[in-house]
Amino acid sequence: ILELQEKISALIKGNNYSRALEYAAVALDLSPDNNVLLSQKAICLWRLNDLAGAAVIYEKMFNLDTTDTGHLLNLLEVYLISNRLDDYESLIKKHSQQILSRQDSEYLMPYFDMLKYYQLDNRDKMRGVIKKIAEKCSPGKVKRVKWDYSDVSRYLETKPADEKKDLLLLLINLLRGDLDRDEALKKLGDSH
Question: What is the reported pTM?
Answer without folding.
Answer: 0.91
